[in-house]
Amino acid sequence: MRPPTGQLWWCRSQVSPQVVLVGVPGAGKTSVGMRLAELLQVGFRDTDRDIEATEGKSVSDIFVDSGEPHFRSLEKAAVAAGLAEHDGVLALGGGAVLDPDTRRLLLDHPTVWLQVSASAGARRVGLDVPRPVLLGNVRGRLASLLAERSPLYTEVARITVDTDGLTPDAVADVVLAQLAGS
Asked: pTM for this one?
């Protein structure tokens, strides 16, 4: 599927991401986001990478060195900046929706929840991953995150796409088709 280029019809503001992706780790936010950016001929931005660039260390190291509350503060600022400055595809960290201010901001953007089951997400991220929220039993942690965050993803998402069993290319096609119809 080849959409028109430039500022798309589903964006409300002058500078706004054309697509914002949310979901738990393993949902495909990065791989699908890069594919969407390629199809739309726009830039791709990941708020976790923004945080790492600002702090000069990995998300895992930020969690260990400074704790989750500090990371969540950085994440809130990174998401607000991405939503205000980026006009391409923006992927958010899985926990960004925990902040009520962030959820309010997302309501004004074309937000897509990439939904994944705990078993499919665990297969994608593997069992030995440097993701701080998945330490220990990866599948069990993903199931817990899904139970905790699904209502929040539902709250902010204009569209939900089940990614289980789909390639990033197929998910990108579904996202574009659904955005075009919204």
From this structure: 0.85
CATH C-level class of 19-181: alpha beta
Side by side, which strands form the sheet with 89-91? 44-46, 89-91, 19-22, 111-115, 159-162
Alpha-carbon distance of 62 to 57, in angstroms, equals 7
Q: What's the rounded Cα separation, in Å, for the pair 66 and 52?
A: 13
Give the chain's mean pLDDT.
84
pLDDT surpassing 60 at residue 130: no
> At 182, is the secondary structure helix, strand, or coil?
coil
Q: d(Cα 64, Cα 67) in Å, to the nearest integer?
A: 6
- Percent over 70 (pLDDT), the chain: 80
